């Protein structure tokens, strides 16, 4: 199949510091929220503990130990042909509690080494500033982003890393999947509003008023960071990152259409509208009124939002759902912190996430028609059980099929006229699942010998998909054959 990806298209992969770095307490790093999360599975939820308990296993503590394997891993990314590598900065590696007056030099130096290694291999870093790794100290002291104090603490981090990595990092994303905060599932990882809580992740108390106030604080922080970068580092490209959860009306009943429109507005468009357009959208006012939500703003907040709009729209895309005005008794599905009514036309992954490549093309068109900004798909992939064969090979045709179908639909979107500039499939090397805290749910092109009980020698092996993606990149998406 011939495709039309532009010359210079940014092919690559994506990971998050808290899910693959390890080194959780080395060289001055402080404790983050993921460091307090135990392992779990698709059937058993992970726990949050207020102290690090000896009777619990915390998978992020070692993860896949990128902290000591970064040179090997980046060399493997380069072997695949990566043009860009999306990663993130562990806030607690720079400011261990989030409140220090001076940054931790050892943490800064680590990311110097990582970004220098990327550059040596011709790979452009794409850095998420905050990717689900809030300092746990800020959770206990401030209830996370519920306090405006975090805006300045976040800006302290931004000022340090913007200055330190000038000339090494060009592309920045302010918050990962910021719209996760529109759902109760976002309380832990995205918002940090779990002060004093210990227990299973789904049990964290939820208050919509708190969540939307917290989101306002993050909107202001993001806008301040973008405006600061624009003033001081005009070469920086600043982006938002949205968890795009495509949804369709279950039927042609007009009530389903309205229900889906409302779902799309609150889940997918609300945060994007504020970060791309710089204003609270009209539809939010009725939603706030009907849910007794009152956003407390300080003088100048609206002007800050207007000034700090992003240059680049990036998003994660894994699955879609359906919406019905009367969904009682209908079969439900869930995945990536969202859920809805099952689509009878779609298949699903081992974890029940519906697979919808055509929905990616539809989503790209909807996003571009709304904002008109350059777009990157910065997460997309298939979590699956991979079998390590006796000869060390890993055959993952299901992953190749999944990615091929999505790349084909991205190609169609480019032909539609979308300004799509890059693609970084999620978990390009196996890592700890954010939702379940397990290693068994593997996404990578590279297999890591690490298991849910913490065992494994951490050796790296190329899967069949490694060589397939290598060919895709080499041909700029023209050769998608096995």
Description of the molecule:
- The structure is a single chain.
- The protein is of the alpha/beta class and 482 residues long.
- Helix content is 37%, strand content 15%.
- The chain has 14 helices and 18 strands.
- It has helices at 17-20, 66-80, 91-94, 105-120, 136-142, 149-164, 186-191, 208-232, 254-277, 282-290, 301-307, 357-371, 397-416, 464-474, and strands at residues 10-14, 47-48, 84-88, 124-130, 171-175, 199-200, 237-243, 246-249, 312-316, 320-323, 332-335, 338-341, 347-348, 354-355, 375-379, 420-423, 446-448, 460-462.
- The strands form six sheets. It has an eight-stranded parallel beta barrel with strand order 1-3-4-5-7-9-15-16, surrounded by five helices.
- A hairpin with a 2-residue loop joins strand 11 (332-335) and strand 12 (338-341).
- Helix 2 (66-80) packs parallel to helix 4 (105-120), helix 6 (149-164) packs parallel to helix 8 (208-232) and helix 12 (357-371) runs parallel beside helix 13 (397-416).
- The chain is globular, with a radius of gyration of 21 Å.
């Amino acid at each position: 199949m011939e495709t039309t990806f532009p010359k210079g298209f940014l092919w690559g992969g994506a990971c998050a510091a808290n899910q693959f770095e390890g080194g959780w307490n080395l060289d001055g790093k402080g404790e983050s929220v993921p460091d307090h999360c135990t392992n779990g599975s698709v059937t058993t939820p992970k726990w949050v503990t207020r102290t690090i308990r000896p009777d619990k296993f915390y998978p992020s503590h070692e993860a896949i130990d990128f902290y000591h394997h970064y040179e090997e891993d980046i060399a493997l990314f380069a072997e695949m042909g990566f043009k860009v590598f999306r990663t993130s900065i562990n806030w607690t590696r720079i400011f261990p509690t989030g409140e220090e007056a001076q940054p931790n030099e050892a943490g800064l130096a680590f990311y110097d080494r990582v970004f220098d290694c990327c550059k040596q291999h011709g790979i452009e870093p794409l850095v998420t500033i905050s990717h689900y790794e809030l300092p746990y100290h800020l959770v206990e002291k401030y209830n996370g982003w519920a306090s405006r104090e975090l805006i300045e603490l976040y800006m302290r981090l931004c000022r340090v890393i913007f200055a330190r990595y000038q000339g090494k990092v060009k592309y920045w994303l302010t918050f990962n999947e910021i719209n996760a905060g529109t759902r109760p599932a976002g309380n832990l990882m995205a918002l940090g509003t779990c002060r004093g809580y210990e227990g299973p992740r789904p049990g964290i108390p939820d208050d919509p008023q708190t969540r939307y106030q917290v989101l306002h604080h993050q909107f202001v922080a993001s806008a301040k960071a973008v405006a600061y970068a624009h003033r001081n580092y005009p070469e920086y490209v600043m982006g938002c990152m949205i968890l795009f959860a495509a949804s369709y009306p279950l039927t042609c009943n007009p009530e389903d259409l309205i229900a889906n429109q409302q779902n799309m507005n609150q889940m997918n468009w609300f945060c994007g509208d504020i970060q791309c357009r710089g204003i609270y959208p009209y539809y939010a006012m009725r939603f706030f009124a009907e849910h007794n939500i009152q956003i407390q703003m300080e003088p100048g907040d609206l002007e800050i939002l207007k000034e700090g709009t992003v240059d680049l729209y990036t998003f994660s895309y894994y699955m879609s759902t359906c919406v019905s005005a009367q969904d009682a008794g209908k079969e439900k599905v869930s995945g990536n912190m969202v859920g809805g009514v099952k689509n009878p036309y779609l298949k699903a992954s081992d974890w029940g996430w519906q697979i919808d490549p055509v929905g990616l093309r539809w989503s790209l068109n909807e996003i571009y028609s709304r904002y008109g900004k350059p777009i990157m798909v910065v997460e997309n992939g298939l979590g699956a059980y991979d079998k390590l064969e006796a000869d060390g090979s890993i055959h993952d045709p299901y992953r190749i099929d999944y990615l091929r179908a999505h790349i084909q639909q991205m190609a169609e979107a480019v032909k539609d006229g979308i300004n799509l500039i890059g693609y970084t499939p999620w978990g390009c090397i196996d890592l700890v699942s954010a939702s379940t805290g397990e290693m068994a749910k593997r996404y990578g092109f590279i297999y890591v010998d690490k298991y849910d009980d913490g065992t494994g020698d951490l050796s790296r092996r190329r899967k069949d998909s490694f060589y397939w993606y290598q060919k895709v990149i080499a041909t700029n998406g023209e050769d998608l054959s096995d």
